[in-house]
């Protein structure tokens, strides 16, 4: 089971990963977007870091909702609404829970991804964060269906997230600022897919033990 403390540890690890790779995210976004993905994400997640202490005694759903509301109010561009929606919907799915089974995590991530799809109106192959999140979610489901343990399922999802992120490189963007470039957006890794890969990878790094 994934405890509340595990969830808090994961979010802190994700905050650190965003801070550590802020310049990479900014460079990727400079190639095909506004060049502010790294700075926007880092700013929002630094505020998230300060809020975690206030909700450390709350249920996991409330923790996720606090993260989501913080991101919506502090992260600029498209990232705030999209990542905010991801966490808010995960919060609804995990309402009242003090620990998560593999099935609970799958349900929470499914709700979050569905929210991102509704908010962003994107599809697989549009060169967005969904190109990372959808394969990661499918890998979790496949592992659970085969009876894999939580640790193995998380490692499978991290591997699928990395493959999905790399698969955005040849794609032509069909959503967001990058879509304005048309064919010139091909050959660049999507910044949102990259920060989403960190989201999945840090969960696996924290929980797959």
Description:
- This protein is an all-alpha fold.
- The chain has a single domain (2-207), classed as Serine Threonine Protein Phosphatase 5, Tetratricopeptide repeat.
- It is built from nine helices and two strands.
- A two-stranded antiparallel ribbon has the order 1-2.
- Helix 4 (60-74) runs antiparallel to helix 5 (79-93) and helix 5 runs antiparallel to helix 6.
Number of helical segments with 4 or more residues: 9
Give me the CATH architecture, please. Alpha Horseshoe
What fold name stands as the CATH topology? Answer: Serine Threonine Protein Phosphatase 5, Tetratricopeptide repeat
Write down how many β-strands occur, each being a DSSP E stretch of 2 or more residues. Answer: 2
User: Which CATH top level class fits?
Assistant: Mainly Alpha
Strand order across the biggest sheet? 1-2
For the biggest sheet, the summary is: 2 strands, antiparallel
- Rounded to an integer in angstroms, the radius of gyration calculated over CA atoms is 16 Å
Distance between the termini: 11 Å
Shape category? globular
Low-confidence stretches: none
Strand proportion, as a percent range, falls in: under 5%
Mean pLDDT: 94
Which structural category fits the helices and strands? mainly alpha
CATH homologous superfamily label: DhaL domain
Order of helices and strands: EHHHHHEHHHH
> Could you estimate the helical fraction of the residues in percent?
over 70%
The number of distinct structural domains comes to: 1
